[in-house]
Amino acid sequence: MGDEIKSTLEIALEKAARLGRASEEELKWEGYKEKALMLVGKFLKGEEENLPQKVTSFLKEIPPSFQKKILKVIVETLLKNLTLPREEYQLEEAKKILSNLQGILAKVPKIEQVFKETEKLLSEYFSQKEALYHELVKRFAAGLTALERAVSEQVGAKVKLSPEAHPQFQEEWNKLKEHLDREYGRQLDYIKSLILKILS
Hints:
Elements: H1 2-21, H2 24-44, H3 51-61, H4 64-80, H5 88-104, H6 111-155, H7 167-199
């Protein structure tokens, strides 16, 4: 913990030293970058609804020499927050990020298709993950029926055992999920790199 605090402090001191030597241009860049990150942060927290409109207004306020770099910072930050959805609400958040990214990059030819494919990929991942999980629960539940009967007879009351509580269940689920995450994660990373390449 002490090392972490020290390294964070060192980073802050290095940045302060850099800013002390920074040119006016570098200071302006830092300021614009900070504002851009705050804008994206507000959107991700649900405090900002129409991000494309805000980004367009913000880009108009800054010198043309910074616009492309700032746009890249905004898009990179949104892409970092675009992850494989573990829960349903995360799928909705991912769709919201995609729709706002599409709005921000609306002038890029054929970009709409890229975002449609990405949304399809994330939805497919989520439904496949859910289906695999329920299939595994069913498979383990089938194996528990005889055990439930035996335990119920022993204790003299109906006993229901949870398939998820089976020691092998988590082991098998983790293997399946790792494979799924690897496959879909690779595809998502490829799409992200493609979008960033378009902006380069």
